[in-house]
Specification:
Length: 476
């Protein structure tokens, strides 16, 4: 399989003809050869996006027409679900069932923004002196959309759909490990009639391709999802041109289990709240805080569930956990198991590499972890969970907040008053009570503290992709 760049609707080679192999993590073998964009391609893509914004059809089209096209794209994504899911499962190392669910989410996101496009509106404001004061919500311009490898189709959709719904033009820089579904989604949008120039997709290295996009003063908005480390440098570069920036970054979220909860439901859901996508999830509840009265039982039952996880080939329908994305990611995860043990953690199960091709490992359960230890403070981004006991509500809140991150989290309790108190006490962008679910197409999503700035999803994303213009009409 070989793939070209999407440059404003054209499929082209990189300016210097470079290509890259995309690796299939389950076999460690190449699955596709993909054109590798560089800084010249980033400049070409921004040239095209600027022209399309200043003179092209997309920003001038009625909001209803824009919405109709995005809705059409959602139907096509659903029609091609099996093909896209297979691509995502192979490229990302995901179980096919999860990949199908992710493509469904991508379709939902386009459907949502198809309906939302003509509901993006300003306000009328009662100012003095009398007249008419209105705000206009206008597109920001050219958007650079930079995505990670863990949920490639979903996160590309979270950015492309609202950016386009608001009337912007855009350049996407997918992670070089997993560019295939973002390229396919762009192709679908052009098949639906997206005007030439509106969207480009440039697979390529972050340090050259994304860096060139971010530094370009003609880019009006950067939407970045990735690590806190790279996010910091993105924000520093953005400051040079005062480019608007939103950041969805790392996490080390808490799963807080009180002793009044229904442990049968809680353990099953909590297991997948950390081990879904082999733990390569920014919302992973990788710190599980458990009240002392049920702690020993929780550790034992959680470990038994982890032991039963079916680790295997992504395209096998029985597989529950696939490989990690790369050898590097597996090494990091295994290293953190050793770091945790050296710090005093008790390894209850897992944390070992699986021999053979591909980047497989058994999910690791570390118990009796101290919240201040490195293994509990640093984002691992692999299947490693820290189990930490606590005594009471105050301690649970203090431990949950004892992290530089604040992305997500869950509270397990049947006591409504306690759920309200703890939900108010935890400083994090997304919380669920008695559920492992974090992200909803219709609701805002983003982080506190070092987990980021800005809210994607739901109508909150309109703030990211529009400028507010205030216009006062004098009555005199
Ligand atoms: P990463 O930061 O290494 O890369 C993210 C993107 O940035 C990629 O497209 C990469 O090519 C690009 N990039 C790399 N170096 C760059 C540079 N110097 N300048 C500009 N761009 C650069 O992250 P990753 O390893 O792809 O993804 C894992 C990280 O993403 C984790 O920290 C995870 O928590 C985070 N993440 C956050 C969310 C969220 O919504 N908060 C969602 C998914 C992943």
């Amino acid at each position: 399989m070989s793939e070209l760049l999407v440059l404003g609707g054209e499929r082209v080679e990189a300016a210097d003809g470079a290509t890259d192999h995309v690796i299939e993590p389950a076999t460690a073998a190449p699955m596709a050869e993909v054109a590798k964009a560089g800084a010249d391609d980033a400049r070409r893509a921004v040239d095209i996006a600027v022209r399309a914004f200043d003179e092209g059809a997309w920003p001038r089209m009625s909001a209803r027409e824009r919405g109709r096209l995005l809705t059409k794209a959602s139907f096509l994504i659903r029609e091609r679900q099996e093909e896209l899911a297979t691509l995502e499962a192979r490229n990302g190392g995901k179980p096919i069932g999860s990949a199908r669910a992710e493509i469904d989410i991508a379709a939902n996101v386009f459907e949502y923004w198809g309906g939302a496009a003509n509901k993006i509106a300003g306000e009328t404001i009662p100012v003095v002196p009398p007249g008419l004061d209105v705000t206009l919500r206008e597109p920001v311009g050219v958007c650079a959309l930079i995505t990670p490898w863990n949920f490639p189709a979903v996160i590309a959709s979270w950015k492309i759909a609202p950016a386009l719904a608001c009337g912007n033009t855009a350049v996407v820089k997918p992670a070089s490990q997993t560019p295939l579904t973002a390229l396919a989604i762009a192709e679908i949008l052009y098949e639906c009639g997206l005007p030439e120039g509106t969207l480009s997709v440039l697979p390529g290295p972050g340090s050259t391709t994304a860096a060139a996009l971010i530094a370009d003063p003609r880019v009006s908005k950067i939407s970045f999802t990735g690590s806190t480390e790279v996010g910091t440098s993105v924000m520093q570069t953005a400051a040079t041109n005062i480019t608007r920036v939103s950041l969805e970054l790392g996490g080390k979220s808490a799963n807080v289990v009180f002793d009044d909860t229904d442990l049968d439901v809680c353990i099953e859901k909590s297991l997948w709240s950390v081990f879904d996508n082999a733990g390569q999830d920014c919302c992973a509840r990788s710190r599980q805080l458990v009240q002392r009265g049920v702690y020993d039982e929780y550790v034992e039952r959680f470990a038994a569930h982890a032991d039963a996880i079916e680790v295997g080939q992504p395209l096998d329908e029985h597989t529950e956990m696939g490989p990690l994305i790369s050898e590097g990611q597996r090494c990091t995860s295994l290293d953190y198991v050793s770091i945790g043990i050296d710090e005093g953690a008790r390894r209850v199960t897992g944390g070992t590499a699986i021999e053979g091709d591909g980047y497989f490992m058994r999910p690791a359960v570390l118990a009796d972890v101290g919240n201040s230890w490195r293994v509990a403070q640093e984002e691992i981004f692999g299947p490693v969970v820290c189990l930490i006991p606590f005594d009471d509500e105050d301690e649970a809140i203090r431990l949950a907040n004892g992290s530089p991150f604040g992305l997500s989290g869950t509270i397990w309790t049947r006591d409504l008053g306690r759920a309200i108190r703890v939900a108010k006490g935890i400083r994090t962008g997304t919380l669920s009570v008695n559920s492992a679910s974090s992200v909803h197409t219709e609701a805002p999503f983003g982080g506190f503290k070092q987990s980021g700035i800005g809210r994607e999803m739901g109508m909150a994303a309109v703030q990211l992709y529009t400028e507010v213009k205030n216009v006062f009409f004098s009555q005199e």
